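EI: anyone free to look at a 189-residue chain?
SC: sure, send it
EI:
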Amino acid sequence: MTLRLTLLAAIAAALALPASASAGGWATVGLEPPPEGMEAGQPWRVDLTILQHGVTPLEGVQPRVIVAREDGSARSSFPARATGKPGVYRATVVFESAGEWALVVDDGFRGRHSFQAVRVVAGGKGRSTEAVALANASAAAPPPGASGGDDGPDWLLAALGAAVAALAAGGGTALLKRRRGGPGPAVGA
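SC: here you go
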């Protein structure tokens, strides 16, 4: 009976640990604002630094930059790709027309982060279509050496947690037996 309880506790801990390891948490996003005098249709290459709990570089997420006209008449989303540097992602953003644009980053983890509105000035005619094509092409493939997957040791953490839970469950049942007056381990046979 004790062996069954220990085994069940270890299995339950192993199944629960990966879910709890990825649950909760928050991230911060840092970025440099677009240059002063940003023109409509001009590509803006922006690096996003995403840190879990404001400290640890967050890898394996799919962030995006979302821009929307303040009057709600237009909205665009630009995916960011891993740069190969932990926690740093790059997007190429194009504001399609002059005016005030709200700037939001979806961190691809747990939240959206709003930044100061961007004032965009009128740009050269015909640049917008060309710039949007450039932005889409640069977002299509990550740069060489970039990692789009999660390279973290989550499986190792889960295995370690399961082993600790199994040991704790086994030790707990031995203590219960002693307190109840049941047979303890044989001594000096």
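EI: The CA atoms of residues 17 and 58 lie 20 Å apart.
SC: 👍
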